[in-house]
Each structure stands twice: as structure tokens, then as C-alpha cells.
Amino acid sequence: MALKHDPEWAAAAAPILDMMSSMPAPADHDVETRRVGVKQSFGALIAQMPDFPDVEVTEHKFKSYDGAELSIYRYKKQGAELATGPGLLHVHGGGMIGGDVATFAPFVKAMVSATGVPAFDVEYRLAPEHPHPALVEDTYAGLTWLHEHADEFQVDRSRIGIMGESAGGGIAAGVSLMARDRNLQPPLAKSILVYPMLDSRNVKSQPELEKFLVWTVGSNLTGWTALLGDKMGSGDVDPYASPSHVKSVEGLPSTYIDTGSLDLFRDEDLEYAGRLAAANVDVEFHLYPGVPHAFEILAPQASVTQQAQANRLKAIKSF
């Protein structure tokens, strides 16, 4: 049977899909147009989410691997228990080239309000101005900062997880590999990867998927090239940048992955989940039929979105 949209989701997302289809596709390697697109489309939709006044946000500073001073934002539910508990490092999406903490803040606030689990969001630097390893090293530095300040924020070091969406999911997967290889102690308790961007080799046309793609092959080529530069297309790609290249996934933390059947990242996410399972890593995987990349942003009230959000919240509360 041919691929098709989930009917309920498509009806809810129709106005946005029509608007997006009427816009000319940016040229390959046009970073700036895609950055503006993230702000104007996804940013505008996320901004329509309800506010969560029960979540307070504070900014903190930390030093990254190269001495650069960066910001990390703490989201905490007011009135939440003061006893030591879990903490979540969050990594926003944006294709390695766009997005920022402020754009995705409503999503993080909603998660913190619903779960009571505090989140810490890293303002990592973007490619191509800051190619690999800046993005993953910035985020890992944020993780080690959280470890160092865990007592101050009533976070149990043995209950720290990492979560990211899209490119943020790819970075989160890379940080999970770093934490394993660098023997972070206590190790990460959980990795939550929402339609993660994992494989730099996924830049070839896929005709059956093309008409459904929100994040396109051209966008993927642009993002990976901006991140990897001369390494793009070679066999010498650092798995911390593109986790699908890693030789072994053994020893990784319990991992949650979800994606849509109409997402460009579908096959690489399926493969990564399968590798985790084969390595006897505790893994939970969801493939939602009939929805594309960022489906929950495009139709927040659709049943499939509600199901996915419930599963993600459950994963956040599982460690």
C-alpha cells in the first residue's frame, strides 16, 4: 500500500502544509533561508502554545571545551519537591544550523510542567560558523557542568538523562556516546531521542517519500555539510557527529526513540534502535504511521500527537 498521511493528522495540519508547499524550496547549502524558515514557521507555531507560569527559568554560564562562555537555562516547576531527584539535559533541534533555546522554550516548559522533572537547556553554537565538534562538545560541557552543580539544583547525579529532537536528538545521541567513552560517572541514566538526525549519509533522493517531507533531502545535505565540511561524504566521519557511524552501541544508557513513517530519518532511526536492541541495550521504539518530521508541532491536538507526547512524558519520568 502506498504511503499516506494519517487522515486526522492531515486534516488538522492542512493549513500549515498548504502554506509550506506554496513556499519555494531553498537552494542546497542555503543556510540563512533555512534559519529564517525555522523561526518563521516552527517558531511561530511553537509560540502559540499556552504559557506555563508554574515553570521558572534561570540563566547560568559555563565554559565549553575551547574556553568559550555559553549559557545553559534551568527550567524548574515552582512548588516541586525540593528532595533530590532526576534532571534532564535538553538539546533543541534546528538541523545543526538553526534554532535556539528561546524558540523551543515553550516545549521545554510544557514538559517540565507535566512531569516536574527539571530541565537544563544548552545554547550550543551552530554550524557552519562553528563546525563539528563544537555542537556536541558544547552540549557535553553542559552535561559535565550539570554534574558539577547537581547538589546545588537538587539533582541526583545517577538520575541525569538527556533528550533532544531532530538535530538535537542526534547531538544527544553523540553526547551519550561521549559519556560512555569518557567514562562519565555516574553514567547517563536515560537517552530520549525524538526523530533524531543520526546519519550523514542520508542525502540521496527518496522519490516515494519526497512529497511528504517536512525536513527535505536538500535540507539534510545542507545541515550535514555545514557541520562536517570537507569530511562530508567521506568514510572518515566522527560518530560523535553522526552516531550511525559508530562501530559499537554497547554500553549505552536505556534509550527511547520515536519517529514518523513519513520522516526522512525513519530508516536511520529504525536501524539505530535495532542495533541498540541487538546489543542488549534497553530500548523503546515507536514508529507513528502517516506523520512526517515535527508532526506534533504541525498538529498538536491530533490523536497521534497526544499519543506521542504521552509516551515521551512517560520516558522522562522513567529514570
Q: Outline of this structure?
A:
The protein has helices at residues 7-21, 31-47, 101-115, 134-148, 167-181, 207-210, 217-228, 266-278, 295-298, 303-316; strands at 55-63, 69-77, 85-91, 119-122, 155-165, 190-194, 255-260, 283-288. It is an alpha/beta fold and 319 residues long.
> Quick one: CATH superfamily?
Alpha/Beta hydrolase fold, catalytic domain
Query: In sequence order, what are the helices and strands, one letter per element?
Result: HHEEEHEHEHEHHEHEHH
> What is the total domain count?
1
Q: Span between N and C termini?
A: 39 Å
How many H/I helical runs? 10
Radius of gyration: 18 Å
CATH class: Alpha Beta
Helix content: 25-40%
Number of strands: 8
Low-confidence stretches: none
Fill in the CATH topology.
Rossmann fold
CATH architecture classification: 3-Layer(aba) Sandwich
Largest sheet: 8 strands, mixed
Mean pLDDT: 96
- Beta content: 15-25%
Strand order of the largest sheet: 1-2-4-3-5-6-7-8
Can you tell me the overall shape? globular
SS content category: alpha/beta
